[in-house]
Structure formats: structure tokens, C-alpha cells
Write a structure and sequence with these properties.
Pathway: Polyol metabolism; myo-inositol degradation into D-glucuronate; D-glucuronate from myo-inositol: step 1/1. By secondary structure, the protein is mainly alpha-helical. The chain is built from eleven helices and two strands. It is 44% helix and 1% strand. The protein binds 1,2,3,4,5,6-hexahydroxy-cyclohexane (INS) and fe (ii) ion (FE2) (2 copies).
Length: 335
């Protein structure tokens, strides 16, 4: 394995691989992936500006990022209860109904910026790392990625809009329960895998009793492409529908990021996303997905580790983001 340590974030990736090895997970595919990751990372670093964003070691509460194992705090207990409900209630049929219902986009008309402001009324109960207003999360991730990729304006806008689908929690959007809007996502119609956070709760999901859904591929064909896979319903897929149906001119990679940014895997207390093991689902992906995944990897770091107590001055950055919104979206969108 090529060990080129290019930044602290990647350094951690390498450590994580050793931990996985100790845990006796099948490491062969992982080392291949890490090789690929290192190559990607070298290219990426070449594109970055000086003083690139450094992923902090701990979150704003002094804990490791995305620590779901320590149920000591009220917050973490709440997060576990969230995943219990999510894993029991998200079923193949439920997702199909929700997609059909919300793809009508008949709830309201508003601009992207109006939606950013609406999001301030939203609290995400699945997130152990964040209790700042959501508009801060959008701007913090967008500003961090803008600093490192100054020429990719589409990426800045993608970060700004990626969580807008959380408006589904608001009464104006039927006030869906948290388990139907936030949290990590996973495929339905095939076996639930143990890499999902708190996966034990899937036992109580009615789909666990349907033999058609219990094999690795389930109702899908190998390599069918993620767009043919029914993913758990939430803010990701909804915002993807909104952007696409309103005719955004953002590139395909942007739509892919919005749609799959919560599709993560975990192994025990090891956050697999460090080693890009989202690729564990390669059996359902096609070549286009694998291509888009490269940008999703870039994005993940900024989405996860930019969450901080230091606020971005909204009024100061607003003109820049308004110019991007005008470039890539119509003035009013159907939601
Ligand atoms: O708790 C978080 C949050 O809901 C994010 O918006 C989502 O993208 C993450 O995957 C999830 O873990
Ligand atoms: Fe999200
Ligand atoms: Fe996010």
C-alpha cells in the first residue's frame, strides 16, 4: 500500500485502515480502495489552495465526530432513539409512496435563499455534532469548500443547498417525523447491512420478514446503478427531486452529492467513511456512480468537519451565494 500522508485527515484514514485490519474485517478490498483513495487525494491536494481546511479532531461538544457508540449523554441517547425509529419505519413501500407524493412538488413556491432562511427553524435530532442553526451549517460547509476549491463555484452552491430538503420537517411541508427526513440513508429492497449505524433495530423492520429483500442484491441486479435503487426517504432524495425538476443547470456530480450525501457505512466504532467504504455497495453501483463518487468524497469532509461554533456572517457572504443561485437556478422553485 502506498503511504503518502498528505494531510491530517488522510493521516487518520491510514490509521483507520490499521484498526480495521485488527478487527479482522476482510481487508483486501479495503486496501485496494485506499490505494485508489490516495491517488485521488494526491490529485486533489494539487488543486487546493494554501492553508487548506483542516478537519478538526473533535466536535463542538469535545467528542469524536460521529461517535454513536457512547450513549452517556442525553444527546447520544436521543440519536440512538432516532435511529431505532428510522430503522423500524423506513420500508420499501413507504419510500415508494413518499417519492410519488413529493415528486408532485405541489407544496409551495419559493427561492433557494428563502428556503435557506426557513431551515433556521429546523432541528436535526440525528446529528451528534451539531446544534447550531442549520443556515450556519450550510454556510460553514460552503465557505470551507470554497476556500479549498475556489474555482469550482458549483461545489460551493452544492454545499449551500445540500440539506435544504430538511424543510420536510416543517408543518408547511406536512411536518414529517424526524425519522422520515434526516439521518444516514440506506438501500431498501435488499438485505440491511451491519455497517449501518445501530443496525440491530432493523430486526423490527417489516421488510426483514420479506424473503425477496433478504439477499445481498434483493430486488436489484448487480451493477444496476444507484438511480434504480430505492434509498430510504429523506432530505437528500427530496432535494435532488426539487433541484432536478426545477431545471437546475448544476452538473450531474452536484445532483449526485445532494442525493447520496447521507449514504455512509460504519463498522462498529470505526467510521468507515474515513476509508471510503461507501464503496462497499459497489455491487449496486455502475460506472457513472463510481465517477460521481469521487466528488462526493471531496464533499463529505466539508459537510462533516466544518461544523463549528464560529459563525459565518450571513449578510457578508449573501451577495456571493445569491450570484450562484441566479446562475444555476430559476428565481422561484416549486417545492
Ligand atoms: O445526522 C446527519 C444529518 O442528518 C445530515 O444532514 C446527514 O446528511 C447525515 O448523513 C446524518 O448523519
Ligand atoms: Fe444532510
Ligand atoms: Fe450537511
Amino acid at each position: 500500500m502506498k503511504k503518502v500522508i498528505v494531510d491530517r485527515h488522510l493521516h487518520r484514514c491510514v490509521l483507520r485502515v490499521d484498526m480495521v485490519r485488527e478487527a479482522h474485517v476482510d481487508i483486501l478490498p479495503i486496501t485496494n480502495l485506499v490505494d485508489q483513495l490516495l491517488q485521488d487525494e494526491e490529485i486533489k491536494v494539487g488543486q487546493q489552495s494554501q492553508g487548506a481546511f483542516e478537519a478538526p479532531e473533535i466536535n463542538a461538544f469535545g467528542q469524536n465526530f460521529r461517535d454513536y457508540t457512547n450513549a452517556e449523554t442525553e444527546r447520544q441517547k436521543g440519536v440512538e432513539e432516532f435511529y431505532r425509529l428510522q430503522h423500524i419505519n423506513q420500508t420499501y413501500d413507504y419510500v415508494k409512496q413518499m417519492r410519488e407524493k413529493f415528486s408532485k412538488l405541489d407544496k409551495m413556491e419559493m427561492s433557494i435563499w428563502e428556503c435557506c432562511e426557513l431551515l433556521n427553524e429546523v432541528v436535526d435530532e440525528s446529528d451528534p455534532d451539531l446544534d447550531e442553526p442549520q443556515i450556519q451549517h450550510l454556510l460553514q460547509s460552503a465557505e470551507a469548500i470554497r476556500k479549498d476549491y475556489p474555482d469550482q463555484d458549483w461545489l460551493h452552491l452544492t454545499a449551500l443547498i445540500h440539506d435544504l430538503g430538511k424543510v420536510l420537517l416543517l408543518p408547511k411541508f406536512e411536518g414529517l417525523p424526524q425519522w422520515a427526513v434526516v439521518g444516514d440513508t440506506f438501500p431498501l429492497g435488499c438485505a440491511f447491512d451491519s455497517f449501518n449505524i445501530h443496525h440491530k433495530y432493523f430486526e423490527e423492520n417489516p421488510d426483514s420478514k420479506n424473503p425477496a429483500y433478504l439477499t445481498k442484491n434483493g430486488v436489484y441486479e448487480q451493477g444496476c446503478g444507484l438511480e434504480n435503487v430505492v434509498m430510504s426517504w429523506g432530505h437528500d432524495d427530496y432535494m435532488y427531486l426539487v433541484a432536478k425538476e426545477n431545471g437546475t443547470t448544476l452538473p450531474t456530480a452536484a445532483l449526485f452529492i445532494v442525493r447520496y450525501h447521507s449514504f455512509y457505512r460504519k463498522y462498529s466504532n470505526i467510521d468507515i467513511r474515513y476509508i471510503r467504504l461507501e464503496l462497499i455497495h459497489t455491487h449496486l453501483m455502475n460506472d457513472e456512480d463510481r465517477e460521481n463518487l469521487k466528488w462526493l468524497h471531496v464533499f463529505n469532509k466539508y459537510d462533516l468537519y466544518s461544523k463549528s461554533k464560529v459563525h459565518v456572517d450571513v449578510e457578508e457572504v449573501k451577495p456571493y451565494y445569491m450570484s450562484l443561485i441566479n446562475k444555476y437556478f430559476p428565481e422561484k422553485l416549486r417545492w
